[in-house]
Structure formats: C-alpha cells, structure tokens
Design brief:
Among the domains are: 2-62; 123-161. 70% of the residues lie in helices and 0% in strands. It has 4 helices and no strands. Helix 2 runs antiparallel to helix 3 (45-62). It is elongated.
C-alpha cells in the first residue's frame, strides 16, 4: 500500500495553506519517516496511520475540498473550586484517619491473637505433660496389679510410692 500511496498524484488545488506539490512532498516525507520508524521499531501502526492520513487528504483535495487539519490536545482537568478543594481535603483526611484506625485495630487484633495462641500453646503443653504423668501412673498401676502373685492386691502396699 505504501508504494501505491507514494506514487499517487494530487491533481486538485483545493488546499489553502499549501500548494498541492508542496503538500505532496510533505506527505511523502511523513510517509518515509513513518516507514523508517516502522522498520526500526518493528511496529507498523505509524506507517498505516500516515498512509491513511495521506489517502484521506489526497481524496479530499481531489474532490475539491480544503485540506483537513486535525490537532489533538490532551484533555485538561477542570479547575476545582475552593468548596470542592475543601471537600476533597476533608475526604482525604477522613480516609487517612480511617486507614490509621484500621491499622491500629489490625495490630491490636494481631497482638491479642498472638497472646491467645501463646496461652493455648502453654495450656496444651500442660495438658500433654499431665497426660504423660497419668499414662506413667497407669503403667505403674498395671505393673503392680499384673505383677502380683495369684492372690490379688494387697491393700497396705497399694498404691506404690
């Protein structure tokens, strides 16, 4: 498509800002720059855009219409009034305070959970040691009961110490 557009001739004199020959040279130079840019970057979008601009411009001039100039400006943010600025400041302050309260609450909750975990771990360790003591005691009683001769338990020596 680049070759067909580069070889195209404009035969209308509808442009008011430039003569058709000068306009054609400018457009062809833009196409060459876009082509070089697309070769370097590997992106064909700039070349396609320039080709389309050139095609639209040449058709407009061929139909006797004037040159199309489109300039894009980035959108500007509207200026806030004093009342809106005050509201925004107030909201930011409220948000900052809420975030700080949340962080404190989360930290407190974490500390409480850690203390509860420590307490439960120590209680668990106590219960495990109590289980071990009871199992040891049970083992001793079983040895005493099963280790006696056939006449059974003697009360005066029970429990063993």
């Amino acid at each position: 498509m680049a070759e067909t557009l580069l070889g195209a001739k404009m035969d209308s004199e509808g442009s008011k800002s430039m003569s058709p020959a000068v306009l054609e040279e400018v457009e062809i130079e833009k196409l060459k720059q876009a082509y070089a840019c697309s070769l370097i970057n590997g992106d064909h979008l700039p070349l396609i855009k320039e080709e389309l601009k050139y095609l639209i411009q040449s058709r407009r001039l061929a139909d006797g219409k004037e040159e199309l100039n489109v300039n894009f400006h980035p959108p500007q943010k509207p200026q806030l009034e004093l009342e809106d600025k005050i509201k925004m400041k107030k909201r930011r302050e409220q948000n900052r305070n809420a975030a700080q309260r949340f962080r404190i609450k989360r930290k407190t909750r974490k500390e409480i959970n850690e203390k509860e975990l420590d307490l439960l771990n120590s209680r668990n360790n106590e219960l495990r040691s109590q289980i071990e003591d009871l199992e040891r005691e049970l083992h001793i009683y079983r040895q005493y009961v099963y280790g006696l001769p056939g006449d059974g338990i003697q009360i005066e020596n029970f429990p063993p110490k």
